[in-house]
Amino acid sequence: MPSKNSHGTSRSVVNPGEGVDGNLLIRNSTMIVGGSIVEGDLRVIGGKISSIAPGGGLDAREGEIVIDGEGLHLLPGAIDPHVHFREPGQPEKEDLESGSRAAAAGGVTSFLDMPNNIPNATNRTTLETKIALAGQKAVTHHGFFVGATRDNVSDLQSVEGMDGVCGIKIFMGSSTGDLLVHEQKHLEEIFANTGGIIATHAEDEERLQQRIAEFGHRTDITSHAECRDVECAFLATKRAAALAKDHAHRLHIVHLTSAIEADWLHNNKGDLITTEACIQHLTFDQDDVEALGVRVLMNPPIRYTEDKDTLWKRLKDGTIDCVVTDHAPHTLESKSVGYPKAPAGMPGVETSLPLMLTHAMNGKCSVNDVVRWMCEGPARVYGMKNKGSLIEGYDGDLTLVDLQTRRTITDSDTWTRVGWTPYDGMELTGWPMYTIVDGKIVHKREVDGALRGVPVATPGSTGRALQFD
To answer: Which of 15, 83, 116, 394 has the most CB atoms around it within 10 Å of its CB?
Structure first.
């Protein structure tokens, strides 16, 4: 199956059907190993990284897939710990197959899915159903949050330690769906009587409802950041942090948006608390909201240039632990009703790694930083076993990306079921040429072919429920 490397010369690849599952050799690539850039070869045997050879020299063996990685960067597969794949309940927006296909197209080999479905994933039965569906339909590794309610502590306890369940999600403020826990007594009960990690959507419900009443007459989308303001987020962030410290409970604050929160966490997060930033909050600001409208409507909102700049600062100093997408697709038809009736959320899982690598190539950060924030960080935060790094003995979850070619993405290039991207018209680099899960190729692109690429794996043939420490 000949293709071309990034210099346009012939690249020899053994047909995936001819190799032994999980046996793979990548030669002559630029690898990110232990925070350093290394030229060489990497071998996967039985789905595990068996050999990393700086300088190369590994010979091909019978029955293994061989990829010439010359001109490409070999990274650990990216991990997106914050997606909404909409199954069950809203397959017209996304399901576990289309979402994981989009993830694979973007170099993401593991995802963690949120619980606000129809029905919500709030007990063992609903989690078992989602995990079983993912086993049949996903092409990447997968894990799921259980949703907290005001009265389901026993359900939360029943899934502790269950394979495929990564933690508890609490919506402290109203967002998409009807999961909401904001009364202090209910929050105390959850923090006091559960284990694992609690991930919070931190917006203060009382202030949020006051602001919605005050701004309800506004139909300009620029008012969204005024309505769901920084104080709304900051109140909830401080409250969640206090609960975590009072009960010695691990806390992860999702989609941090403001300079005030990021600076406060820099001085106050301690060892119990981690946090994340969305790529769109690192990329867009108030000018993009005016230009793109409801395509970039989300909760918490896209804020201001000073917030974006501070998020970058706090990423680089380690206050923010990882970069995520909050991939939350809605159809353009549902968005077309305009603000404020349009649903909040946007797709992003398949563009996340190229977008961050584009930031790196534009001098905003380094490729090593991207690996730290999108591979190592999520694995560390959630205790994912053998994930996030190129280390011998770790799982063979890999992506080979092209940092020399820039391509403009359009809505028609996407795999997400809703068929659009907020980055339509943007020129990005770092597109994955191969995405590999447990040593098996699940998606590939030709250098001179369609940007959308070609899926290789069949649903359910690759990927498994993640395990968490």
So the answer is: 83
